[in-house]
Model the fold of this input.
Amino acid sequence: MLKFNYKYMNNQNQKPRILTGDRPTGPLHIGHYFGALKDRVELQDKYDTFVIIADVQALTDNFLTPKKVRDNVKEVVMDNLAVGIDPKKSTIFIQSMIPEIAELTVFYSNLVTVARLERNPTTKEELKQKEKLFKNNITYGFLGYPVSQAADITAFQADLVPAGEDQVPHIELAREIVRKFNEIYGETLVEPKAKISAFPRVKGLDGNSKMGKSLNNAIYLSDSPDIIRQKVKMAFTDPQKIRLTDIGHPDNCMVYYYHQMFTDSNDLKVVESECRTGARGCVACKNQLADNIIKFLAPIQEKRHYYESHPEIVDQIIKEGTAKAREVAKETLRQVKEKMFLNY
Ligand code: TRP
Done:
């Protein structure tokens, strides 16, 4: 059982608080679902959940294409609603509409060294993928986005941050900032804990260790049945299995990999043994997988279609969520500024 710092919890309903969220850089895919959204939906009953649509953070590596970020804000909100985030239980808000987060970021910047930011393994990894954008010249904003993320988390005095494994270095930095702030200016901020998804990172259709938009190897929650069939057809399979009767190696096949996620255990045993003995071909195996993915996504897509055809409801959810989030962040900022003698 996790222990929470109830003394500093400033939410009235006394449930411990969660802050989590996504960058609006594209529609969410099944990697997001298993890595984060599934947990998020389950946790919203027990926690006072805040979901950030991190548009400011998205701009740190999409500053050349701000319209793309804007266009994806509502998409990501709809993805969250479609998987079961309930606006009655969870507060969905837009980062750029909470200027208190930007103010906190400035104050926290004094508590973090440049060397500390340069050591962050997640930033380093992302930088490799962004070679074209940054070349060898990383921006101040990109290097510093984990500081801004610490502001996202602490603005809400969050106790828990459910996230994928790649977020651990950022949450660790947030914890360090909190400790330092409290030590220098006096107890003010809640030290957040990471809650890492039990599900490991979902691999891409091509076998790449990461599923991602830029890698073109993702199945999106909003993909139509036709697109899903097309994508599954192109998935990486055991190169040694060419003819139907060839013996297959499920461990070297992305189709089997996804069967493990979408196919019930009895059918899965059949898939595995028929592949190993050469009793099934990859085409049939792919069709079965595509059927199961389509079936799995159907209720999610049904919900998404409802919101797509009622954009005014989505706008209202964002508006109300952001207003509520702002109140919470304002109170944190008030306390922070008081401690820093900035309460003019
Ligand atoms: N960095 C997260 C991602 O890339 C998004 C994010 C922004 C976030 N602020 C956050 C996640 C605060 C958890 C808490 O997916």
